[in-house]
């Protein structure tokens, strides 16, 4: 997984300040206080992937070729994972290679973080599982007590860790060393990738069942030990699934591809499903064995829902017809709202991705800097709900996104890194 995508020229929603009714478990808010977390050192890209209940975040930071910092499909010069606490970032380091990265990169309430890192060892099979073009071995890691340690695989060379819950259970995928017969000839990454669960720190990886599919990836785990992710052929997205006590169940979809990115402790699951007519990803919520399409904002082509808290608040990101991230959103009370319509005008950030939401309602994501010396760079942010009127919003002041000078097809690579370009229909 990588960074972020290009800016586009679509107009943004006309929504301004909105006050949502407080019904049942619904949450009421007027606006958000926005904390700009910037990026590490001289990096021009930062994305807050996950946030714990203390408000600590894990961040993807990267130095991109100038002019490509708004697009994860651009050329990455270096990349690092970081922890952000009280507005400061700390580099997590690597396992010996030049780069570290993460999927959704969960940080639990004890400050433990998981992700993946390159080592200094070239992959003997020429694979490039970390996707930085270096063809170095890619290993899942656990970071705790200011130290990064590798997690075991299933006997193969590579793997990635995606999430850790408050019980210390970790999920992700690992190779078992065999060649995946479902991969086409000539594919670089052609070893079997299986969803796995790690328990008790660096204990042996335990493979999770994949049903009728040969491979898969576990992307999130709640504090009850329920796991969500996807299965498919040759590590591609086909079915959104949930694992409960080692039993795998396929979630309802449109038979056009689906993936589950997150779940809460109430059993609600979020992700995306391919639209029945086009297969384009649309943000989705599964609850009570039912699929709910969360809809789109004006100007958006598709989207993903990536985070949900126990109140049922959902956050995610929509993209436009060129594959560029277009709006960060929050969905609650059956309404999708552009997050920028809830940001005060003085935030100087235009939010294009919202990744996770904690039990306090704080949101982690990434945004385009609107003005100043870092204008058009990408910064990580945390948005904290406040019960006060804010006057004009970012959506009022900046009704359109900053324009990108990148070719449209560059941004599509970013969607692929987030699993949005590799459906199996």
Q: How would you portray this structure in words?
A:
There is one protein chain. The protein is mainly beta. The chain has a single domain, classed as YVTN repeat-like/Quinoprotein amine dehydrogenase (Methylamine Dehydrogenase, Chain H, 7 Propeller), CATH 2.130.10.10. The protein has 2 helices and 28 strands. The strands form 7 sheets. Strands 1-28-27-26 form a 4-stranded antiparallel β-sheet, with no helix packed on it. The protein has a 4-stranded antiparallel β-sheet with strand order 2-3-4-5, with no helix packed on it. The N terminus and C terminus are likely disordered.
Q: How would you sum up this structure in a few lines?
A:
The chain has a 4-stranded antiparallel beta sheet with strand order 1-28-27-26, with no helix packed on it. Strands 2-3-4-5 form a 4-stranded antiparallel beta sheet, with no helix packed on it. The radius of gyration is 20 Å and the shape is globular.
Topology readout:
Elements: E1 31-38, E2 45-51, E3 57-64, E4 76-85, E5 88-91, E6 100-101, E7 113-122, E8 136-144, E9 147-150, E10 159-164, E11 170-179, E12 191-198, E13 206-207, E14 215-221, E15 227-232, E16 239-244, E17 247-250, E18 258-263, E19 269-274, E20 281-287, E21 290-293, E22 302-308, E23 314-319, E24 325-332, E25 335-338, E26 349-357, E27 363-369, E28 378-386, H1 394-397, H2 408-417
Antiparallel strand pairs: 1-28, 2-3, 3-4, 4-5, 6-7, 7-8, 8-9, 10-11, 11-12, 12-13, 14-15, 15-16, 16-17, 18-19, 19-20, 20-21, 22-23, 23-24, 24-25, 26-27, 27-28
């Amino acid at each position: 997984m990588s960074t972020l995508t290009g800016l586009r020229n679509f107009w943004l929603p006309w929504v301004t300040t909105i006050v949502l009714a407080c019904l049942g478990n619904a949450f009421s808010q007027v606006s958000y206080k926005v904390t700009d977390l910037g990026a590490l050192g001289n990096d021009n890209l930062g994305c807050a992937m996950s946030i714990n209940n203390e408000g600590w975040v894990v961040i993807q930071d990267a130095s991109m070729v100038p002019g490509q910092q708004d697009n994860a499909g651009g050329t990455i010069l270096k990349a690092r994972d970081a922890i952000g606490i009280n507005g400061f970032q700390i580099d997590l380091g690597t396992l010996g290679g030049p780069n570290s990265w993460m999927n959704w990169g969960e940080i639990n309430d004890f400050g433990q973080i998981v992700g993946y890192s390159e080592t200094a060892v070239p992959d003997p099979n020429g694979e490039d599982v970390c996707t930085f073009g270096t063809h170095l071995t890619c290993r899942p890691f656990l970071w705790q007590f200011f130290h990064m340690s590798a997690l075991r695989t299933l006997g193969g060379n590579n793997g990635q860790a995606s999430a850790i819950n408050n019980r210390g259970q970790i999920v992700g995928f690992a190779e078992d060393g065999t060649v995946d017969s479902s991969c086409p000839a000539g594919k670089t990454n052609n070893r079997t990738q299986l969803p796995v669960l790690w328990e008790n720190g660096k204990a042996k990886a335990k493979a999770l069942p994949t049903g009728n599919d040969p491979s898969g990836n576990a992307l999130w785990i709640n504090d009850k030990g329920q796991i969500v992710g996807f299965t498919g052929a040759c590590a591609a997205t086909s079915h959104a699934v949930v694992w409960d006590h080692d039993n795998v169940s396929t979630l309802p979809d449109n038979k056009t591809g689906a993936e589950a990115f997150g779940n809460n402790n109430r059993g609600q699951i979020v992700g995306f499903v391919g639209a029945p007519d086009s297969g384009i990803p649309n943000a989705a919520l599964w609850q009570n064995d039912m699929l709910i399409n969360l809809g789109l904002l004006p100007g958006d082509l598709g989207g993903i829902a990536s985070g949900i808290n126990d109140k049922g608040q959902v956050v995610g990101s929509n993209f436009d017809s060129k594959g560029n991230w277009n709006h960060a959103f929050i969905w609650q009370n059956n309404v999708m709202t552009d997050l920028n319509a809830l940001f005060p005008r003085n935030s100087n950030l235009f939010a294009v991705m919202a990744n996770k939401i904690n039990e306090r309602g704080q949101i982690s994501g990434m945004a385009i800097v609107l003005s100043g010396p870092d204008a058009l760079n990408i910064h990580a942010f945390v948005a904290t709900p406040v019960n006060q009127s804010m006057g004009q919003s970012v959506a009022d002041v900046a009704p359109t996104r900053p324009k990108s000078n990148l070719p449209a097809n560059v941004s599509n690579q970013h969607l692929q890194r987030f699993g949005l370009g590799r459906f199996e229909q």
